[in-house]
Write a structure and sequence with these properties.
With 238 residues, this protein is an alpha+beta fold. It has helices at residues 5-20, 78-91, 105-112, 122-125, 140-162, 186-209, 218-228, and strands spanning 29-35, 40-43, 59-62, 67-69, 98-102, 171-174, 178-183. It starts with a helix and ends in a 10-residue tail after the last helix.
Length: 238
């Protein structure tokens, strides 16, 4: 029998960071942890409050959304996670082993406005080199077919349309809905979600102070991003 203890522990720890980082009220968020070799991921059970979660309450599912292990129903967003893992990590080879979805205030505000988040400053540039992308609304037909599956398909198709690399752009807003972020592991996905929430807050403040604010110049974007990423990065300790 396969052992899923590691990804269940990762998923549990990451989900407990959602309330700790003030990324969601009540049960408004979920994190998953992926085992690419086994083709499964562990995810928060649907509708269970964070204080009631345990490692054993995490649900293990395959990339078709079928429950492999667990006594609860998995998150209602499970199929969105599955599409991202399948298309970006398995088919596309992206280094994605954790995904988070929340309804954090400032990220959702930009999603509800159906607006990408402009790259105004170095905090943003330290993490990604582009505006935070925002997809259009899902079509009525897609919502009627399979809402969560089509949400994942929308993210994947939007990245292909815009030529975005999910290894470099590790966050997206779904129009009218909210943010999805991913990372090399579940903990890093939560970190990226916290970064996104702060960047969205800063961008809103910037536009309130100066509605004509310009994006950060490209040479500053490159400097800040490459300080932390790539072969010549020098931020932090070796």
């Amino acid at each position: 029998m396969a052992d899923y203890k590691d990804i269940k522990e990762q998923a549990y720890s990451a989900n407990m960071e959602i309330p700790a980082q003030h990324l969601a009220l009540y049960t408004w968020g979920n994190v998953s942890a992926f085992d690419k070799a086994k083709g499964v991921f562990a995810i928060k059970p649907s509708g269970v409050p964070y204080p009631d979660l345990t490692v054993d309450s995490m649900v293990v599912v395959d990339l078709d959304g079928n429950v492999v292990e667990g006594k609860y129903r998995p998150s209602s967003d499970t199929l969105t996670h599955a599409v991202i893992y399948r298309d970006f990590a398995v088919k596309g080879g992206a280094d994605i082993n954790g995904i988070i979805h929340t309804h954090s205030t400032f990220a959702v505000s930009w999603a509800q406005a159906v607006k990408s988040v402009p790259l105004f400053g170095t905090t943003h540039a330290d993490h990604i080199q582009t505006a935070v992308p925002c997809t259009p609304y899902l079509s009525e037909e897609a919502v009627k077919q399979n809402y969560e599956l089509e949400t994942g398909n929308l993210i994947v198709s939007y990245f292909k349309e815009k030529g975005l690399n999910p290894n470099e752009v590790n966050m997206v807003l779904v129009g009218g809905h909210g943010p999805f972020c991913w990372g090399q592991n579940a903990s890093k996905a939560v970190y990226n979600a916290a970064v996104l929430e702060e960047v969205c807050h800063m961008a809103l403040n910037t536009l309130q102070l100066n509605p004509q604010a310009n994006p950060l110049p490209e040479y500053i974007i490159q400097k800040h991003y490459l300080r932390k990423h790539g072969p010549n990065a020098y931020y932090g300790q070796k």
